[in-house]
Structures are given as structure tokens and as C-alpha cells.
Design a protein that fits this description.
Blueprint: E1 10-16, H1 22-35, H2 38-41, H3 43-62, E2 68-74, E3 79-85, H4 105-112, E4 115-121, E5 124-131
Antiparallel strand pairs: 1-2, 2-3, 3-5, 4-5
């Protein structure tokens, strides 16, 4: 199998122990998106990715009672934002009452991302939100 020589990817990973600050995950993500230049070319997209990261890491800590492994992979077609946790329980979107304080994380991630995938693993699960590249329409 030959690889397409024009395909390039970059990635970063960070472990966020249970009880660590979600702000740490947001700041770390924002810093890496700046290396792609998105802070200048698509600040609204950066805000969407950072908000999704906040929800993904919070879900891992609060619902899975687990450390979160945060992985960002940019392959020039999609930014894959993956949070891995140790719980094998696959999350299900809820439809909370209007006055509920929580329960909207997956709904929010689904609204922000172009695609969301949930995959069970031998030692937990991965929740991945995919974001298309910055475009003229998205940067507005």
C-alpha cells in the first residue's frame, strides 16, 4: 500500500488527571490551534473547538470518574478532537428539561462539530469531535 506523499498530519496528546482543571485543557488546546494559525484565520472555530474540549474533558471527569486523555490530530481535512476515558459506558444524548443545570454536553458538541463519533475500546471509550478546516464561511 502506497501512501499519498501530500498527506500530512500533526498531533498532540495530553493527559488530564481526574480533578485537574478543565481550563488547563482549554488553554492547551488554544495554544496548539495557534500553531496552526487558526487564532488569526478562524477565531470563532477556535472558540467552538475549545468549548467542545471543555465539554469532552468535563464528561470524562464527571460522568466516567476518570482521567481524560485528550488527543488533537490535524490531517488537513479534519481536526479530530478525541477524549479517552476509562469507562466503557457509552454516553447517550439526553434531552434535559429547560431548567436542568446539566445534561447538554453531547448536544452542544454535536452542534459545534461537523461529526461526532463514539467508540468503545478495550479499556474505556473514545469520544471524537471532528471539525472541518477553516473556511471563509466559518471564519465569519
Amino acid at each position: 500500500m502506497t501512501q499519498d506523499p501530500s498527506l500530512r498530519a500533526v498531533g498532540w496528546a495530553r493527559s488530564l488527571p481526574l480533578g485537574s482543571s478543565v481550563k488547563t485543557a482549554r488553554d492547551w488546546t488554544r495554544d496548539h490551534l495557534a500553531t496552526l494559525g487558526w487564532d488569526r484565520t478562524a477565531p470563532d472555530l477556535v472558540d467552538s473547538v475549545v468549548l467542545a474540549v471543555s465539554e469532552l474533558v468535563t464528561n470524562a471527569h464527571v460522568h466516567a470518574h476518570s482521567d481524560a486523555q485528550l488527543i488533537l490530530t490535524w490531517d488537513e481535512e479534519c481536526l479530530h478532537v478525541t477524549a479517552h476515558d476509562a469507562s466503557s459506558r457509552v454516553p447517550e444524548p439526553r434531552h434535559p428539561d429547560d431548567d436542568a443545570l446539566g445534561g447538554r454536553g453531547l448536544l452542544l458538541i454535536g452542534a459545534l462539530a461537523d461529526e461526532v463519533r463514539i467508540r468503545s475500546c478495550p479499556r474505556g471509550k473514545d469520544v471524537t469531535a471532528c471539525f472541518g478546516p477553516p473556511s471563509a464561511d466559518r471564519a465569519k
